[in-house]
Amino acid sequence: MNLSFEYSPFFFLLIVPFAAGLTWLMYRGTRDMLPRWAQVLLTAFRFGALVLIGFLLLEPLLTSLSRLSYPPIIAVLQDQSESLVIQRDSAYVQEAFPENLRSFLDGFDGDEYVVDLYGFANEVSPGLSPDSLTYTQTGTNIAQALQEVQARYQNQNLGAMVLISDGITTAGMNPLYTVEGLKTPLYTVLLGDTTLQRDVRVQEVLFNEIAYWGNEMPIQVKVQCEGFEAAELKVSLRGDGKTLDTRTVSLGRNRPEGTVDFLIKPAEVGLRQYEVIVSQLPNEITYRNNSRRIFINVLETRVKIALFAGAPHPDLGALRKTFDTDDGYELTEFILKEPGVFYEDPGRFNLQDFDLFILHNFPQSRLDQGTVAKLKTVIQDENKPVIYLVGLFTDLATLSPLYEYMALTPRELSPRGEEITLDMQATYRRHSTYTFSDRWLDWINSAPPLYRNLSNWQPRATAEVFATAKIKNVPLDYPVFALQSYLGRKNMVFLGENIWRMRAHSYIETEDFESFDGWLYNI
Question: Which of 176-180, 243-247, 304-308 has the lowest mean pLDDT?
Fold first, then answer.
């Protein structure tokens, strides 16, 4: 234990005689008024009280340091994709490897280490054992697995991560960029046949899960070709029992990846199935990845958007103009007139009828708790998507019931803000649900400054941060723009106020609003 003072403890040498003198002055005239014992007792109490007050005025601080030791955690990530068992050494992976993995895990002293085994492919599965591993999943997102496992052990003693995989990734961003941001040592174990195989596959299909009858929608297909010197590949899109479109792409050793764009107009309402098929080449290691099915929910009505705003703001005008330019959207605004009172009462509407919620500088006070509770119920029960536009006047404490549905959440709340510019990196282009063009990146990286809330914002394990902040042209690790898709719920968090400047900047740069409007449409 250690005792320290805000002010010099030498002042205590002055406090004691000062307290003694003041006590003597107060009781010197009571010699004949009180019994001797009472006079001594009161004098002692008075002196002690004055000394104690003086001692406390020095602001003493008693600190005690205790040490708790936690054993380091070793997180082992085992690839469960089917690519491990379609290689030439699949027998080893399925038969001998589980026992080798068990021996590896048992080799750690249980008193010194905690070892957790995770399986991963498209998603992470915790609490596995070597005997429960399967190799049936069709996609591999190594970057997401690393991010999610590290986030699970936040503020814990994560000593190391061990990645066991063949290194083939088919979804998410390049894992090399994720490794650069890891705070934990990563050890890799190559499993399977790591030699280059002859294979053509549909690597990724980018599309919107919701479309609208009569409106065109894009589908982007990423094709990969390995082990062939050159190949002319046909990529077809099938739906409604027929081939809707066919495109050709030339790939090979010098260009192993290519992109094909389709544009469809759904003819019927409901859940529609489409299939992307890439032509087969001789001697491929497998033909199972030459096609991929996707499902699109085609709706008949327009997207109904509920915009909750804390006060009138130029940003609201920019949002209104964006959605008014497309007949596929219907915007209803609920703007606070005063605390707890809206110009248009949301109680007159059934919130379940809306397809998307936008919260701009909302909520603003504890009087909005009832509205936040209703929004949480609809988001939770109906899996409604949400766009959070967090500004300087957003009451983060009142917003807290919605934290579990936010890609970014504040750990330390602050009402203050700072002026920042966006730092969108080209490495974020290959997100699985959204693709940025070079033109778009140039536009957003040169956008005017915004005001960002100064709270300590942290991304969730399943979120992907698309942009961070720059202050005076210095890049900082402050997240600003992030998307999350988890358990069927999608949300976007944008920590910036004055986005109307971005829309104006879009017109100045390109003489149209496509960069800004297209950004919101595709989220």
Answer: 176-180
DSSP per-residue letters across 206-244: E--SEEETT--EEEEEEEEEES-SEEEEEEEEEETTEEE
Query: What is the pLDDT at residue 432?
Result: 45
CB 177 within 8 A of CB 93: no
Looking at this protein, which amino acid is placed at residue 397?
A
SS3 308: strand
Taking Cα atoms as reference points, which of 179, 176, 174, 134 lies closest to residue 161?
A: 179
**Mean pLDDT confidence for 356-370:** 93
Say what angle helices 12-27 and 36-57 make with each other, to 10 degrees: 150
* Residues sharing a CB contact under 8 Å with residue 422, sequence separation 6 or more, in sequence order: 444, 445, 447, 450, 467, 468, 469, 470, 480, 481, 496
Q: How many CB atoms lie within 10 A of CB 434?
A: 16
| Under 8 Å between Cβ of 42 and 93 | no
Return d(Cα 482, Cα 407) in angstroms, integer. Answer: 6
User: CA 235 to CA 205: how far, in whole Å?
Assistant: 12
- Of 37-51, 75-89, 163-177, which has the strongest mean pLDDT? 37-51
Helix (H/G/I), strand (E/B), else coil: 363: coil
- More confident: 377 or 67: 377
**Count of H-run helices and E-run strands, the chain:** 12, 27
Q: Work out the angle between the directed axes of helices 500-510 and 514-522 (0-180°, nearest 10).
A: 130
> What sections of 400-488 are H helices per DSSP?
438-445
pLDDT in tens, 121-159: 877 888 788 777 777 777 778 888 888 888 788 778 888
Collapse the DSSP code of 520 into the 3-class scheme (helix H, G, I; strand E, B; otherwise coil) and give the result: helix
Structural domains in the chain, CATH included, are: 2-63 (no CATH), 73-190 (3.40.50.410), 199-299 (2.60.40.10), 303-522 (3.40.50.880)
The Cα diameter of the chain in Å comes to: 119
Q: Which residues contact 338 (CB under 8 A, 6 or more apart)?
A: none
Q: Are 497 and 361 in contact (CB under 8 A)?
A: yes
- Mapped onto helix, strand or coil, the DSSP state of residue 436 is coil
CA angle 220, 222, 223 (to 5 degrees): 140
CA 461/CA 486 separation, integer angstroms = 10
The string of pLDDT tens digits covering residues 58-80 is: 888 888 777 777 888 888 888 87
Reported as type and span, the H/E element at residue 468 is strand 463-471
What tens digit of pLDDT does each residue of 283-314 get?
887 788 889 999 998 887 778 999 999 999 99
Helices (H), 337-456: 369-382, 396-399, 438-445
SS (H, E, C) 58-112: CCEEEECCCCCCCCCEEEEEEECEHHHCCCCCHHHHHHHHHHHHHHHHHCCCCCC
